[in-house]
Amino acid sequence: MTELQARFRHGWPGFTLDVDLSMPARGVTALFGSSGSGKTTLLRCIAGLERAPLGRLSVVGEVWQDDRVWVPTHRRPLGYVFQEASLFPHLSVMGNLRYGIRRSSDGSAAALEQAIELLGIGHLLERKPAHLSGGERSRVGIARALAVNPRVLLMDEPLAALDLKRKQEILPYLKRLHEELAIPVLYVSHSPDEVAQLADHLVVLDGGKVAAHGPLNDVLSRIDLPIRLGEDVGVAIDGTIGAIDASWSLARVDFVGGQMWMRDHGLPVRKRVRMRVLARDVSLATAQPEGSSIQNALSGRVDAIAPDEHPGLVLARVAVGDTIVISRLTKRALDTLGIAVGLNVWVQIKSAAILE
Ligand SMILES: Nc1ncnc2c1ncn2[C@@H]1O[C@H](COP(=O)(O)OP(=O)(O)OP(=O)(O)O)[C@@H](O)[C@H]1O
Predict the structure, then answer these.
(1) Which part of the chain is the Mop domain (predicted)?
(2) Bridge partners for 305 per DSSP
(3) For the chain, which domains are there?
């Protein structure tokens, strides 16, 4: 058994968390859902801060809860990162990191060193928390959680308290965690953008239940989910930089089923990238577009159509080879062009963001 398996039924009057999930043993699983959907309650059950009767939890082969076993929180080798990193003001950064380790049996000098390196805080070790920026404090908070050499890292909206600039500053470090940590990371977020940048897997919670669960793009490309992302509906496509056209400052991203030209961000050929393609930036045509300023036209087939939040709009799911994109179009366009499931169409992608 190599993954994280969690089965809990737990709640209060008016709310029940009712989940039975298997999450991968490494990589970032994002827990996404509206306020009150049970994301924090699920993390707290995993941490042992809530005790769901008849619950079952095993983390990478080790049982932390079942009918007979209950490992108390302080014996669970886990890191928990909250919105606000509550550091001890009288201790230096190093003192704060060491304090976390002393309380755990699993912390090791190697884990501490790796955490300091991963979060890029080596130059801050002697500082007191009062002399750190919000972003630096968050990085120290994450390093402290990692220094105990956890078997799972739980992160509850670690960026929520930061402004946009600080978020941008810290995201590269979170991406490194995603690439370099060999443990499962459960990451609660309200932000579809953050989820698209960081997650490999996505769990969508709705009213305490799992509305969808699976590899990131399988879930993002579902257009039938009750939870709607509004302007943020879209997919994340993994690919590699296939070529650079220096004369036009463009980079070609190759993915399963096609290629797209995008603005060149100086990334080298063969670099793996993730593209975020929002449904509002994707239009459909029934004939191959000519004389269009939109350079990325891909041939695909409509495989589902669903209503959008707005009564005048619909979402169409299109398979471009093995890659799914979503287009948001008006009902009138759908009707006029005769777009229906099974129709071959041209997909025009006006813009896409490269998420390294
Ligand atoms: N100890 C508690 N006693 C009673 N109700 C609680 C308790 N903890 C949470 N709740 C309720 O359970 C529901 C789920 O809360 P939870 O914090 O898990 O949601 P969430 O998805 O993390 O929300 P948010 O995104 O706002 O943080 C909410 O309705 C909340 O008010």
Answers:
(1) 291-356
(2) 316
(3) 4-226 (3.40.50.300), 234-355 (2.40.50.100)
